[in-house]
Automatic annotation (TrEMBL):
Keywords: ATP synthesis, Cell membrane, CF(1), Coiled coil, Hydrogen ion transport, Ion transport, Membrane, Transport
Membrane topology of this protein: Peripheral membrane protein
Keyword hit for Coiled coil: yes
Organism, as annotated: Pandoraea pnomenusa
InterPro entries in UniProt: ATP_F1_dsu/esu_C_sf, ATP_synth_F1_dsu/esu, ATP_synth_F1_dsu/esu_N, ATP_synth_F1_esu_C, ATPsynth_dsu/esu_N
Protein name: ATP synthase epsilon chain
Family the UniProt entry places it in: Belongs to the ATPase epsilon chain family.
UniProt gene name: atpC_1
């Protein structure tokens, strides 16, 4: 069975390094599914969940908050602004961040930075989705 070498790194450290038979990445224009032999590609990524399926079928979920992905036929490298394992995310904190960003966007005041509030909302929603996906996978097992 052909495998991919997968590396996910943030500006601070390496989050994941290993082999996989499939990788799902939140590309800037939509979800990217990567199998061995994929055409080379370099693109931006948006906040979301990276799903890595190992050769034995086990799955690893990582949260990323933007950056880039380089895809080669035998390798996937994610260079993320922020990256962490989904199981280390704090659900309550992410929910509070989502509520705060949503409240800012609902204000009709000219004193807020809408782009920043939208980015914060997108990150909080992506964290909550990563938590849900990881919990759902644990329930299936």
């Amino acid at each position: 069975m052909a495998l991919l070498m997968v590396d996910v790194v943030s500006t601070e450290r390496s989050i994941f390094s290993g082999e996989a038979r499939f990788v799902e990445v939140p590309g800037a224009q939509g979800e990217l599914g990567v199998l061995p032999g994929h055409t080379p590609l370099l693109t931006g990524v948006r906040p979301g969940t990276v799903r890595i399926e190992a050769a034995d079928g086990s799955e690893t979920y990582l949260y990323i908050a933007g950056g880039f992905v380089e895809i080669q036929p035998d390798r996937v490298t994610v260079l993320a602004d922020t990256a962490m394992r989904a199981d280390s995310l704090d659900h309550a904190r992410a929910e509070r961040a989502r509520e705060e960003a949503q409240a800012l966007l609902e204000q009709q005041s000219g004193d807020i930075d809408y782009a920043k509030a939208q980015a914060e909302l997108a990150e909080a929603v992506a964290q909550l989705q990563a938590i849900r996906r990881m919990r759902k996978q644990k329930e299936v097992r």
